[in-house]
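During the reporting period the student researcher (J.K.) took over the structure-prediction task from the postdoctoral fellow and processed the backlog of single-chain submissions. One of the processed entries is reproduced below for the supervisory committee.
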Amino acid sequence: MKKYRMPRLSLGWQIIIGLVLGIIFGVIFYHNKTAITAMQNLGTIFISLIQMIVLPIVVSCLTVGIANMGDIHKLGRIGGKTLIYFEIMTTFAIALGLIVGNITHPGTFINIHDLHGSDISKYMATAKSSSHTGLWDTLMGIIPTNFFASLSAGDMMPIIFFSVFFGLGTAAIGERGQIIIDFLQAVSEVMFKVTNWVMKFAPIGVFGLIGMTIAEMGLSALAPLGLFVLITYLTMAFFIVVILGIVCKIFKIKYWPLMRVIKDEFLIAFSTASSEATLPRLVSKMEKYGVSQAIVSFVIPTGYTFNLDGSAIYQSLAALFLAQAYGIHLTITHQITLLLVLMITSKGMAGVPGASFVVLLATVSTIGVPMSGLTFIAGIDRFVDMARTSVNVVGNSVATIVIGKSEGEFDEEKNKQYLADFNG
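J.K. obtained the following structure tokens:
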């Protein structure tokens, strides 16, 4: 007698179900403290599990990738290309936000006095501690005085810096360094196996995170600022489909097959508003997609600090929105200044919690918007964060393939085989 198995739901569908159930439970248990605590804890467990595996993957993959590359000149070239590409794309994103803000004028439809403010004290504290962060402070912050302290704090750039040098040192000692490469290669394989186990909890984590958000704020929080949220979402969708689509066309990347490959990561990023939640699977997928390990393990972690396209769109749109809401006219000169300020502040504060909001705090004062104005959009920050995190994930995936192709380190045959297996 034949046994019939129930068809298994893919991770993407499980996450969508978790997202929908989270919204439903959030509405049902609006302002119910017991339910909010329970859902918050489910979300926190998932994010903590992800944070547990991210750093071992970054250290092991990056060290092995750089050790196998073994050429400091090549590394310098890849690093230079990567940072230039990131800067160009971030500038495009900021400019797009400004253009859309000037065309749609979302702030003119809002009576600022009718809005209710939210608590932004935690962002203010972060902004104050980061207020002196300039170019030199940012550069000095990349160099770790204590690697293990950076690991403990989860400070990504010093960890990348150390791993790059450790990989080069491993390559420099030749045969004796092979034991380190073999060990770290085994570590990365173990951590990817652990990642697969952790991702089984993703739908529950998504349910908890979105449920907690809706239960705390309520869908009514979106109503007064609904137009601004809608414009932000449409602008980010335009960036993903059109701007990144053009980049893919230029570098002969198959855009829609790539989007199908990373759709689960896109959904995870959207529902958790956490870039870290997607990093382990994205590293694994980009390697399978055909990009060399050295490129993947360098570009993706660096991108989560320097290539925040979604955040850049939001920051420029939100700054214009607030200026319009307060009736502040910004000339072309003011807006070019705003673009330059955002280019600097977004890099200097990329590693701090709530970075997008902290950047806004550091930026709006330069265009005459009162700090109190930010309390009015703090309530919807979580909803916008979901979209901007998703854009960051797509942007970093495209960036990895672009750098891989530009270096001739993209395996076309491996890519064709992976896409055939993935679609099959």
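The committee noted the following: The chain has 20 helices and no strands.
J.K. will present the remaining backlog at the next meeting.
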